[in-house]
């Protein structure tokens, strides 16, 4: 079975919404708390499924320099997730949201494959991932010639670089197989304010001969690595890691390194895909390649987001005191989700996310 064949698993995937209902919690929270990311999949040089990623601009107030999926916030309550995500991707990397234009000029359209459940962003936003696939009318030489004309552009106010990775590499640790391109893959089960949370990291070489031709040649328009490292401690303070479990032997306090950096051991320039982006892509890889393993299991944080909303959080643009405490949480803080919801509900969520 080829990588494109397994897209059938993704098309058939039924998103598990909050309370097993028909609608995602994304439609429940206020518009100012709704965010989207676009997962653009395409077929690589040897038939592998790849995903497009960006490096966030160092000028951004939140998560500067981190590796992320193209995306942004909704403008109105009338916009559908797919519309928002296509628009934001177009603004961020210059890939048109008009399928007719893409087909007539480059021979492909972006097929709406599916959507994932909502995830809770560190800044207390509900993030809905939308998944699209670059679908070509023809293969072979004509396809490559058309793609040579495709010129993406990064929006310097939002992104500083574009690249891609094999989706299958994000299966770890669900499957321990040799990575196609990842240099290092790590995983820790920790806690964020008392709720189990997966801390994953996947590093990839910046100079990659297996990169798609239409994504090559994107020089990082941000500051140099040396300039970035000087500001790293200040940036870490903006996005502190969740609280590690006491039984963890490894010191996780340094997590949050810039997504584009130099590996300390090999001196190789790498991209570090970690945090929420890594969790979304890991879950997506499980759906695509191990569809049976996600049956009955909670992906995303629909239930947690709904519970926070139900008990007085995620209500407006201004963060509550409780939300501010969750955002600025450090390993020494004794902040818990149980502070903003009944203990019985907190314990239910703990059991749910241990699965």
Describe this structure in words.
- With about 350 residues, the chain is of the alpha+beta class.
- The protein has one domain: Nucleoside Triphosphate Pyrophosphohydrolase, CATH 3.90.79.
- The protein has 10 helices and 12 strands.
- A hairpin with a 5-residue loop joins strand 1 and strand 2.
- The longest helix has 15 residues.
- The radius of gyration is 20 Å and the shape is globular.
- Keywords: Hydrolase, Magnesium, Manganese, Membrane, Metal-binding, Transmembrane, Transmembrane helix.
Layout of SSEs?
Elements (H helix, E strand, L loop, with lengths): L6 H6 L21 E10 L5 E8 L10 E2 L2 E3 L7 H13 L5 H8 L1 E8 L3 E2 L5 E11 L4 H8 L10 E8 L17 E9 L2 E11 L19 H6 L1 H5 L23 E3 L6 E6 H15 L12 H9 L10 H7 L15 H12 L1
Parallel strand pairs: 1-7
Antiparallel strand pairs: 1-2, 1-4, 2-3, 2-8, 5-7, 6-7, 9-10, 10-12, 11-12
Q: Quickly give the structural class.
A: alpha+beta
**How much of the polypeptide forms β-strand, as a percent range?**
15-25%
The outline comes out as: globular
Q: What top-tier CATH class fits best?
A: Alpha Beta
CATH T-level fold name? Nucleoside Triphosphate Pyrophosphohydrolase
Task: Kindly state the percentage of residues in helix.
Answer: 25-40%
Organism: Candidozyma pseudohaemuli
Protein name: Nudix hydrolase domain-containing protein
Keywords: Hydrolase, Magnesium, Manganese, Membrane, Metal-binding, Transmembrane, Transmembrane helix
InterPro entries: CoAse, NUDIX_hydrolase-like_dom_sf, NUDIX_hydrolase_dom
């Amino acid at each position: 079975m080829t990588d494109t064949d397994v897209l059938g698993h993704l098309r058939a995937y039924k998103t598990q919404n909050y309370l097993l209902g028909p609608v995602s919690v994304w439609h429940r929270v206020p518009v100012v708390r709704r965010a989207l990311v676009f997962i653009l999949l395409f077929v690589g040089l040897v038939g592998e499924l790849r995903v497009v990623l960006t490096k966030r601009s160092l000028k951004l107030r939140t998560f500067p320099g981190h590796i992320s999926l193209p995306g942004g916030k909704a403008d109105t309550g009338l916009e559908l997730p797919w519309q928002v995500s296509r628009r934001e991707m177009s603004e961020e990397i210059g890939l048109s949201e008009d399928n007719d234009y893409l087909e007539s000029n480059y021979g492909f359209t972006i097929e709406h494959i599916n959507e994932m459940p909502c995830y809770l962003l560190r800044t207390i936003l509900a993030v809905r991932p939308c998944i699209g696939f670059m679908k070509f009318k023809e293969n072979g030489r004509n396809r490559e010639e058309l793609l040579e004309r495709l010129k993406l552009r990064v929006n310097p106010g939002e992104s500083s670089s574009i690249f891609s990775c094999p989706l299958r590499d994000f299966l770890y640790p669900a499957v321990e197989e040799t990575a196609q391109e990842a240099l290092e893959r790590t995983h820790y089960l920790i806690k964020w304010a008392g709720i189990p949370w997966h801390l994953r990291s996947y590093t990839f070489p910046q100079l990659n001969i297996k990169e798609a031709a239409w994504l090559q040649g994107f020089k990082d328009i941000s500051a140099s690595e040396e300039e970035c490292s000087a500001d790293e401690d200040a940036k870490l303070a903006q996005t502190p890691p969740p609280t590690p479990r006491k039984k963890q032997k490894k010191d996780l306090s340094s997590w949050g390194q810039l997504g584009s950096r130099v590996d300390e051991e090999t001196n190789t320039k790498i991209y570090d895909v970690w945090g929420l982006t890594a969790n979304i892509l890991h879950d997506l890889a499980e759906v695509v390649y191990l569809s049976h393993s996600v049956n009955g299991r909670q992906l995303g944080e629909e239930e947690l987001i709904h519970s926070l909303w139900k008990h007085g959080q995620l209500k407006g643009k201004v963060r509550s005191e409780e939300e501010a405490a969750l955002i600025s949480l450090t390993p020494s803080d004794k902040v818990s989700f149980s502070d903003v919801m009944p203990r019985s509900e907190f314990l239910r969520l703990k059991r749910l996310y241990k699965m």
